[in-house]
Amino acid sequence: MNDKEKKILRYREENKAVKYGQTVFTGSSLMEMFPINKLLEEHNDSEIIYNRGIGGFVSRELLKVIDVCAIDLKPSKIFINIGTNDLSDSRIPISELMENYDKIISEIESRLPKTIIYLMAYYPVNYEAADENMKECLKIRNNEKIRTASTEVKKLAQKHGQRYIDINKNLMDEQGRLKAEYTIEGMHINEDGYRAIYDDIMSYVKETI
Questions:
Q1: DSSP label at 43?
Q2: Could you report the per-residue pLDDT of 73-110, keeping only the tens digit for each?
Q3: DSSP structure class, residue 130
Q4: What integer is the mean pLDDT of 32-60?
Q5: What is the rounded CA–CA span in Å between residue 91 and residue 50?
Q6: What pLDDT was estimated at residue 209?
Q7: Are 80 and 27 in contact (CB under 8 A)?
Q8: Is 188 within 8 Å of 171 (Cβ atoms)?
Q9: Structural contact between residues 149 and 203, judged by C-beta atoms closer than 8 angstroms
Q10: What number is the average pLDDT over the span 5-16?
Q11: DSSP one-letter string for 48-93
């Protein structure tokens, strides 16, 4: 059993004890690594947020287990950040990613018609600050491709009448790259980076619609 399968099993078990009507974060490693419960504690925040991100996931993998990673928790809000691993794979066109993303949204909507879905703009990367072993990947998953994909996510949100959110402003340097001090190896975000976007994401968690 690989790490992804172990996490799915663990989440399935943990979902039996959740409180319905809360907020769920779902997606790949950039969501899984969001230390949201630690930050909630730091801010003495009483919101309940369940993180169901799984590192390494591409969009088709999330689609297969969207019940475990979102629907089974019956949340009032779902925040999704999925697709950056698709963008890292030159064999996966953006159109295929968006087709899977569209199906993910439709599946949630059909099972949880009252739940609000927040589709997140993709975080930027920083090629110049990247570790040498990460640079080949970032030639494929570059900021231009990320911006193009985020534009397509925005169109998906409009098509479904859901929310598209971009909380990247505090992460970016003057050139639109992920700030060097906020990245682990050019792609993933460190704890201070997540701290920098905490207030912005929480404004959406707490908003009343």
A1: T
A2: 999 999 999 999 999 999 999 999 999 999 999 999 99
A3: S
A4: 97
A5: 32
A6: 76
A7: yes
A8: no
A9: no
A10: 98
A11: -EEEEE-TT--HHHHHHTHHHHTGGG--SEEEEE--HHHHT-TTS-
Cβ of 28: how many Cβ atoms within 10 Å?
22
Short-list 75, 158, 68, 64, CA closest to 103: 64
Tokens matching residue 190: 């460190």
Nearest to 122 by CA among 23, 31, 4, 25: 31
The gap from C-alpha 29 to its chain's centroid, in whole angstroms, comes to 8
Cβ pair 184, 194 in contact under 8 A: no
| 158-184 tens-digit pLDDT | 999 999 999 999 999 999 999 999 999
Count Cβ neighbours within 10 Å for each residue of 146-165 and write b for 16 or more, e otherwise. Answer: beebbebbeebbeebebbbb
Task: Give the pair of three-digit tokens for residue 101.
Answer: 């993303």
Would the pTM of this model clear 0.85, i.e. be above it? yes
